[in-house]
Prior knowledge:
The complex is a heterodimer.
Chain A: H1 2-20, H2 24-49, H3 53-83
Chain B: H1 3-21, H2 25-45, H3 49-73, H4 89-109, H5 125-132, H6 139-159, H7 174-181
Helix pairs in contact in B: 1-2, 2-3
Amino acid sequence: MTYLVVSALLFALGAYGALTRRTAILVFLSVELMLNAANLSLITFSRLLGVLDGQVVALFVIAIAAAEVAVGLGLIIAIFRRRETTSVDELRSLRG
Amino acid sequence: MSFWEVVSAVLLLATALGVVRAQNAVHAALSLIANFLVVAAVYAGLEARFVAMTQVIVYAGAIVVLFLFVIMLLSAARSEAGPDPLPGLQPLALLGGVSLAAVLVYAVSRFQAPANPASLQGGLPQALGPLLYQPERWMYAVLLVGFLLLVATVAAMLLVEPERIAPPLSGKRPQDQQEGARP
């Protein structure tokens, strides 16, 4: 039960970081923290309910996080090449 | 709430705070590695040993090291220095984070665990394998995730490809002209 509360707090901390960080890479790190908090709650529920499927879904989350990081870091490098910055406050050309 | 639960909870929250507050991006990434290692230990204690190993190898070993590579490649370690362009955002984000935490803690506090859960057999690969590779369980999801990883790899390669010379906007491309000139 403790870990459920911890995972909720970790998720909220990650959301706070994703909102306040100013560099795209650090926003990404906070998103990884949120994914990990979701994984922790999946594993804890799997243990509390005695069902293994939670662990399988946690493995899928890890695999999809790897794919997301590959694409996201590729995007960040491509943006840095063109704009010489990864600050999310300066990347505003799509703002209406 | 046992002693080790409290220790791991404190370690997890402290390292997570390091991830969201550290001024140096390298320190934030190292805090994330520490967080992932503590999470892997917690997984091993929750009868999820295979997921714990995967956490260490894939998350702490591959993903965060990739982050460190990119931080150093882009010299982004000190990128948070300087005045904050949006000073009004901090209290709003704090409010959002606290309310999100309140809602989530309320949601999990209503959960009633059954008295005697079934054994997970330690979460070893022998227990997870039949679930993963049975067609009526998760096999098609495994295949789809593998395909997704392939697509993501190709996309990442295309994104960071060196820029090619753009073809002219009007007129035919050179190979079209050659084909047209052929009798």
